[in-house]
Amino acid sequence: MHRFFLRPQQVSAQRITFPPDLAHQILHVLRLKDGDLVEVLVNDGFIMQAQLKLNANQNILLGRVLERSAVSTEPRVNLQLYFGLSNREKVELILQKGTEIGVSTFCPYVSSRTIVRTTNLPEKKRVRWERIIREAAEQSNRGKLPNLRSTVDLAKGFTESISSANQSLLAWAQADTQNDRLADKIIPQKEGVIAVFVGPEGGFSEDEINLAKMMDLQVVSLGDRILRMETAAIIFPTLVLYALGAL
Prior knowledge:
It is a single chain. The protein is an alpha/beta fold. It has helices spanning about 20-30, 90-100, 125-140, 155-165, 180-185, 205-215, 230-245; strands at about 5, 15, 35-40, 45-55, 60-70, 75-85, 105-110, 145-150, 150-155, 165-170, 190-195, 220. Strands 6, 7, 8, 9, 10, 11 and 12 form a 7-stranded parallel sheet that branches. The chain has a 5-stranded mixed sheet with strand order 1-3-4-5-2. The chain is elongated, with a radius of gyration of 20 Å.
């Protein structure tokens, strides 16, 4: 059954009004018909089963809510992924695959070695990134849309994570593969917030690592091999959720 995320104002107790762009996709791309069933979410932790209903002039697509239930596909742990801003293809891959894996919050940052050095994100780019997240969430049966935070500098990201997360983990290519194993550093928990940091293409600088350690972030190793930034951004959250049994 196809799944769609809508805005709360587009859904009432019994009726759903699909926006024109989504109505076009449903009718002309997916070729669903009057009377077909779909799943609708408004990011509140519940899912609605709805029956499609075309109005008389065939231009407005409505839905009749048949039932409403709690979602069951969300990880129990809220995982925040901090990643360095890079080129378009890499960022979009991270957003798409991270959503499928179960990332709850995407936190882009800039640092001394990121390809992009400005925290100013054009509105057009943000809209595109949010669309990628929404489409990946619908495809992968997510129960909630991951949040996309504004871009910050790395030091502010450290401060944010320490204040909001139960544990903050930073993957470093030069970490000790024996003494800094992820499995030994992660704190078992059934719920809560975990922040994970992956470095940019050039890796973290020595000053950034020293700052992270001073602020009590846990430096961990992802193994003996050097991973690309986008690979680490996919593998790291997967390993954390798996280790916590929260996938």
